[in-house]
Model the fold of this input.
Amino acid sequence: MSFEPLASDFYGFETLLTPEEQDALMRLRSYMEGTVRPVINDYWERAEFPHDLVESFLATDVARFAFPETRPFENSAVFRGLAAMEMSRVDASMSTFIGVQEGLAMGSISVCGSQEQRDEWLPRMASGEVIGAFGLTEPLSGSDSARGLRTTATRDGDSWVLNGSKRWIGNATFSDITIIWAKDTSDGQVKGFIVDTTTPGYSATKIERKIALRPVQNADIVLENVVVPEAMRLQNARSFRDTAKVLRLTRAAVAWSSVGVAIGAYEAAVAYAKEREQFGKKIAEHQLVQDLLARCLGNITASMALCVRVSQMHDEGTQGDEHSALAKGFCTSKMRETVAWARESMGGNGIVLDYEAARFFADAEALYSYEGTREMNALIVGRAITGKAAFV
Done:
């Protein structure tokens, strides 16, 4: 499959990829355009997850790229970021599914698990044999998860007993395992557990009536005396600092996804402008429409440049929490502007699913909030700038 850069990649960042990475990106693009785009509006409207697409979706290797135990070829963080962008420019819900499966659930096992746990779980999750979820956020603990977790873990011989609740947990209505983060009652430190979702005392209930990422099956989880063997504790998760190592990686991925959402809305607006006529000519020929589109492209290009660099820093080993935080906060803010301008350029038709911008406009609100709000990411960056924490 020949490589064709996106027109919306205005500065040609995709040309930084190796030929093998370009081929893989084109296969993913072909799948998203040919299989996901034709059906995703219907799933979005019904708030249903496309379970029938999971097998073919994972066959693109999209959940295999990041880990030595599963990757089909050596690849860069820039490639993996562009893959997240590619998914989101068609549909942010499918990208979120992979973000939870590969980024958060598999990422937790990769970063905090033992080698035995990595060998056991990562290949099975990459293939789709095992679907994962990630349980950190709670009904009363979101931005303050570092110190505010109320879910507890109590050692009982060779097992742990978990009690508490989680909220907004993606994939959780159909996951086979969920990574649960809980506070050890003996030392007060946060630890991670691989929880089999068929364990007695574990329940997950879908959150209804969302206006964003509607196909994503977010759930409320309740844990009532859930018994987890010591062997299922993430062996290298000893405090919230270890949890933060996972979030450092996934925040950068959300930044990439937000660029994809912005591109999706922008591309819909460009296509519409070339077809829609007002005052005797295509609206693409109107100055104010061109101004809106140019502003959209400026936001997209600046955000892509930031994402490329933070991914390069990951491969160099120099990426810190503050670098991921700046990328997530900046890119999601610019995404929010961009989808609004794209929708605005389409007038009333911009709020109708048939023209696609409406879906990106709504989904942007979820990406803007999850994986750390703009304000929390600003405080992470502010701490790096000043050397002073100002979280409370």
Remarks:
- Strands lie at 132-135, 152-156, 159-169, 177-184, 190-196, 202-206, 219-229, 277-278, 281-282.
- Residues 77 and 315 are 6 Å apart (CA to CA).
